Amino acid sequence: ADRGRPPILRARRVLEEAFVEAFGVLPECRRRGFGHELQTTAVTICPGWDCYQIRSRSPVSSTEYYQLKIKMGCSICRSEEIDSYYFTKLVHKQ
User: Fold this and answer.
1) What is the CA radius of gyration of the chain?
2) pLDDT attached to residue 68
3) I need a surface site. Which of 31, 34, 46, 80 has the fewest CB within 10 A?
């Protein structure tokens, strides 16, 4: 359940969501594909944990991160905090 809402059920199982708590690449290591590879790995392993989507939150100042998430097909959602956005992506079992 999220913020007091009841969980979403599918075939009597709770739909699980993966949440990326922290993500970053050192400034001197950016633009080398490390961030893309980390995100791709996270999306790839989520279905094995029975997750239906992956979500992360990022400060409004992280414009490079936004570009990566948009390129990977994430949706952008407002967060309740005015200093950040949520990014979500549905993941599918292979």
Assistant:
1) 14
2) 87
3) 80
